[in-house]
Every structure is written in C-alpha cells, then in structure tokens.
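Follow-up to my earlier ticket, as requested here are the two runs.
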Amino acid sequence: FSPGLLVVAGSFAAFRLLNRGLERLVPPPPSARRNRWKWRNIWTSLAHSALADTHSLSPCRFYLHPEMSNDLVGTHPPGAHSLVAVSVGYFIEDFVDMLCNQKLHQSWELLFHHSVVIICFGIAVLLHQYVGFALVALLVEINSIFLHLRQILLMANLVHTACYRLNSLVNLGTYVVFRIATLAWMTRWLFLNRHNVPPATYAVGTAGMAIMTPMNIILFYRLLRSDFLK
C-alpha cells in the first residue's frame, strides 16, 4: 500500500466535486447548453492544468534542482510526488467522466491517451521513482491551458474574435515547445539512459512515447488545419 494512493483517491473525489459544481461557478452560455457536461469537463481540465502549472511545473524548478537533469529516476523536488498523484486522480476522473457521458467512437483517442498516462504516472506514484520523468511530462499542461481555452471559446461561439486568434497563436507556439519538443527530449533521455532503467519500465516508457508522439503530431496538424489553413 502506498500513501500516494490516498492522494490519488482524494484528488479523484475533489475533481469530481468540482466538476459537479462548475456549472454554478461558470454558467454555460446559450451556445453551450446543449452539451453541459462537456462545458463542465473542459473547465475541470483547465483547473487541473492551472493547478499543475502553479505547483512545481515551471522551468525554474529545473533551475532550482539541477540534479534532476541528470537523474529523473530517483531525484525530484519536494511536493513533486504528491503533484503526480493528484494528476493521476484527475486523469482517472476525466476518464470516468468521458466514459459515462460520451460515445466511445467520439472519445476513444482521449481514453487511450488517459490510459497510457494513468499507467505511466501510476508506476511513478507506487514506486516513488521516475517522479522527475513524470514531472517533465506534466510540462505539457502549460500548453493544455490554451487548448482548453480554445475549446471554451469554440463552445461560447467566439471563434471570430481577436481573443480566439491570439489564443490560437499562443496555443500552437506552446504546443511545439511544451508538447512536441518535450516528448522528443523525454524520448532522447529514455534512450540514453536505457541501461539504468529496468527492462519492464523501459518497455512501458518506450511504448508510452511511441503512442504519444504520433498522437500529438496528428493533433498539431488538426489544430493547424482548423485554425490557420482554412
């Protein structure tokens, strides 16, 4: 039994309660009332991204703890383990929310993505190792803020606004830096340190990178086509 599991369970419950109460905090506009659960889901995801960025995710963490650059297996800053556990709880909550409210053919990509993240982050939480690696992976949440804002603006029917255009530019820029470049760096680190990682963990990490990389490239193309190529 790992105390991290209590954090995961508490996080799941907290994000579930937040999801239930968000419609009162942020009432959906008329254009989003047909899909109320999606409105709540996006705002819940935005809350997780903001929380993750606020706690230990800024690049200054790596400046304050330079040893992490050399050892992502056993080294991590204070609070990082709890942050990863909180993120596992969120991804489980989001998985359940989509499974209950959306048809499988509409959500299978995200469900698959969440399954990979839950497995990889769950290993870090249970073993108290690879937390630094998971912390690097959570840098993608910096871009997720703008991805979620894009969805909110779409649902609010604010596509033809300067705010949407500005968010689209920032979204693509942070996508390249904090998703594609971060995943490339993680893949490189995993390959260079393959002799220091147990075979089973290396196989899980390699499979995760092999799945995430093409998914993120495809999503980048969809965003580029939708917001700019049209």
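Run two:
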Amino acid sequence: LPTPPARLPYVPQVPPTALLGKVTATTFALERPCCVFDGHADPSDAVWLVVAFANASAAFRNPPCRADVPPYKQLPTARSYMTLETAASAYSCSAPSPPVLRVGADTACRDQGRQDPCNGPLPSPGPYRVKFLLMGCRGPKAETRWSDPILLRRAVSPSAIDPAPARRGSAVLVIASILASLGAALATAVLGALGAKVWGSLCHQDLGTDAFIRRSYRTHHIPPALPRPLRPGCRCSPPGLCRCAPQPPAPC
C-alpha cells in the first residue's frame, strides 16, 4: 500500500495586506508557500494546488499519480481540479520568487481541448477551498491543510443597476440646496450692510464739502467800502495827496 502523505500544519490563505485585485469575480491571490516543503521534497518532486468547492473539499481524494490529476475543465462536474504544477525547489527558503500566486489567471484555458491541467478562470463566486500537494514519482508525499472558504466577488448585472437616484441622495440634494440658498442670502445681507455703510460715509463727506464751499462763497461777497467825503477847504492834488486849510476855532 502507498504511504499516506505527511500532513503539514501550513494553511493557505489570501494575503491579509492590501493588494490590487486580491479577490475578483474569477480570480484570487494566495500567499506563496515558502519553506513549507523543505525536508520532504526531492529535486524531482512537484507541488500542485488543489482547488475545490468548499462543500466538496472533504470528498476530494489525492490522485495516485500525475496521469490521474483532475483537470480544470472537469470542475463543474467533479467539483475540484488541480493546477499550478511547480517544481518543489521553487518553494524552498532560498529560492527568489514572487510573494503571491494568482489562481484563475489563465483565460486561454476555456478554449483548451487537451487534458493538460491549467489555471483557468473560476466559473462562479464559490466559495472555494484550496490546499498544496507535494507529489513525487510514486505519488503524494506531503500536503497542507485546507484553507478557509474563499468567496469571490459577484459581478453586478447592468440591468440590476437603478438609474434613478436613491431617496437618500435626493434628501441630501435638497439639504444642500437649502444650505446654498441660506449662504447666498447671508452673503447678500453682509454686502448690503457694507454698501450702506460706505454710502453713508461718502454722503457725510459731501455735506462737509458743501458747507465749506458755502461759507467760502459768503466771504467773497462782502460789499466794498465807499470813499469818505472831503471836508470843506480840502483839495487833493495829485490824487492820493490831500491838503486841507486850517479851520477857525468854533465860537464859544
């Protein structure tokens, strides 16, 4: 009888850090299992990824050899398949490799007629569970635990999108309109008050100027002084030089 594969404590998981396109409608990312198979793998061994629907993972049976690996196109009926065949040395601690794997990234698998395993897009949101399986020339040698269920995003049908705005959006629009009207009224009142103040100051300046002009105008209309009459016996020659004869003393 073949020896049962060793059970490794490693649990595959979606990267917890922020990652663009970490989970989409047909794909998801997995952390790369570095240093997991060291001590169990030979240079000729390969590591596979087993993908199964979450409710069918318990019924999955490891294939005895590579020829019995379930292909991607049997997923709708077999409820599981194996993909991402990779040399075990690529997952060693010293191997430089990308930090994540992308499940479902090969769109050419849908048109592939041969039985070769491929990494095709996942046909439904799932949920799915995955595990890594180390296989040698004599069959499975070690396997990880199953992951937690992985649910893909659901694509929204264009016919399901409501073109009319939601009620909450209408209420927000009404409140925004009211606030804008109040702001415009307040701005108008402030500008009116400032305008009245400026206009009043200009009017006061004009009144002060008119009063000054009127006072100045009166000073320029003082009637000229009349010439004094000459006394009897006085004669002016040349003009401006007048001589008067002495007057006799008045009788007592």
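The only thing I checked on run two: The chain has a mean pLDDT of 79. Let me know what else you need.
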